[in-house]
TrEMBL record:
The gene is ssuD_1. HAMAP family: Alkanesulf_monooxygen. Pfam families: Bac_luciferase. Belongs to the SsuD family. This is Alkanesulfonate monooxygenase. It catalyses: an alkanesulfonate + FMNH2 + O2 = an aldehyde + FMN + sulfite + H2O + 2 H(+). GO terms for biological process: alkanesulfonate catabolic process. CDD domains: Alkanesulfonate_monoxygenase (cd01094). Keywords: Flavoprotein, FMN, Monooxygenase, Oxidoreductase. It comes from Methylopila turkensis. Its EC number is 1.14.14.5. GO terms for molecular function: alkanesulfonate monooxygenase activity. InterPro entries: Alkanesulphonate_mOase_FMN-dep (IPR019911), Luciferase-like_dom (IPR011251), Luciferase-like_sf (IPR036661), SsuD_RutA_monooxygenase (IPR050172).
């Protein structure tokens, strides 16, 4: 029997809302709102959440620490940023948050692809040099979390007598996840990480990428797991789902599309270029594969595709990704609080997922149940 997919959700630390690309109905990334989302998905049965990173987001480590104390089982996939911080400092952060969360920390290695944003953080290396630096960073970081005293001198980084006083809960270290489509990125994934992430491209493109990563890992005697990052728009009927997709981008202006595509064009991220190529910045023909819709990518950098449809159909499409090697889905939907309930209530039963909330009780005759009649 095939193991059920693992489902993660998304914490919208850059803000949330009903209409993407519009200030209408916008919800700021208020700490209490983010806590509401986290508590909801913890109770609904999602295994973990991804927290994004960047200058437009609330700082992911601080938010994850706050949310870890408000949840019970939820895992937190937090950005580990080579180049933005030192490996020793990052190791201390990781060990502390792993202890605070009682072993629920996961690390998403983010090298970055926006030159302007990287410059603001003091990073001025080109694409391949950033990955070379990340290789050195992760070499030192992993040794520290494993309990080693580290002396290291590379092209980009140097450490003398580095060590970690307080170990993490997870040994040898919290799991490393990574996404990147370039050759340099795939080498990093194969050398250092446990889970490789890809954005929601058509199944054949995802299969091709997984084959490349698997081959690179096999050369090192490793086996990686694979995750898929995309959005979900699930409704009881296909017509309702497609109407919801159209509504989501109904306030998007041509100027907003042009501005987003101009910013994306400046990125040296291979993954971003692949995402942009799916829609070309145009509103026409946004269903790029069966039920795979690229509308979000018009005004959203990064993950820009969604699976759209009724529960049975979306589950079938997810199983197509599972058949080529995906075992974890990192999903999201706008607004994230309401859509988490829709995904859990409509889609989870079709995937064999779900969790009975603590304190759950049976329904009785009346508002939410039908009680069988008795006869005397």
């Amino acid at each position: 029997m095939t193991k059920p997919l693992t489902m993660f959700w998304f914490i919208p630390t850059q803000g949330d809302g009903t209409y993407i690309g519009s200030s209408e109905g916008h919800r700021p990334a208020d700490p209490l709102y983010l806590e509401q989302v986290a508590i909801a998905v913890d109770r609904l049965g999602f295994e973990g959440v991804l927290l994004p990173t960047g200058k437009g987001c609330e700082e992911s480590w601080i938010v994850a620490t706050a949310l870890a104390t408000a949840t019970e089982r939820l895992k937190f996939l937090v950005a580990l940023r080579p180049g933005v911080t030192s490996p020793a400092f990052a190791a201390r952060q990781a060990a502390a948050l792993d202890r605070i969360s009682r072993g629920r920390l996961l690390l998403n290695v983010v090298v970055g692809g926006d030159a302007a944003e990287l410059a603001g953080d003091g990073v001025f290396l080109d694409h391949d040099a950033r990955y070379a630096q990340a290789d050195e960073f992760l070499t030192v970081w992993r040794k520290l979390l494993s309990g080693e005293r580290v002396d290291f001198e590379g092209e980009h980084l140097k450490a003398i007598g580095a060590e970690l006083a307080f170990p993490p809960v997870q040994r040898p270290h919290p799991p490393l996840w990574f996404g990147g489509s370039s050759d340099a990125a795939i080498e990093i994934a194969a050398d250092h990480t446990e889970v490789y992430l890809t954005w929601g491209e058509p199944v054949d493109q995802v299969a091709e990428k997984i084959a490349r990563v698997r081959a690179a890992a096999a050369k090192r005697g490793k086996t990686l797991r694979f995750g898929l990052r995309l959005h979900l728009i699930v409704r009881e009927t296909a017509a309702e789902a497609w109407a919801a997709a159209d509504r989501l981008i109904s306030r998007v202006s041509d100027e907003a599309i042009a501005a987003t595509q101009a910013m994306a064009a400046k990125s040296d991220s291979v993954g971003q270029k692949r995402m942009t190529a799916l829609h070309g910045g145009k509103r026409e023909n946004l269903e790029i594969a069966p039920n795979l819709w690229a509308g979000l990518g018009l005004v959203r950098k990064g993950a820009g595709t969604a699976l759209v449809g009724d529960p049975a159909t979306v589950a079938e499409r997810l199983r197509e990704y599972q058949a080529v090697g995906i075992d974890t889905i990192i999903a999201s939907g706008y607004p994230h609080l309401e859509e988490a309930f829709k995904v859990a209530e409509l889609l989870f039963p079709n995937l064999g997922l779900g969790r009975e909330p603590s304190g759950a009780h049976a329904t009785i005759g009346g508002e939410f149940g039908v009680k069988a009649a008795t006869t005397s």
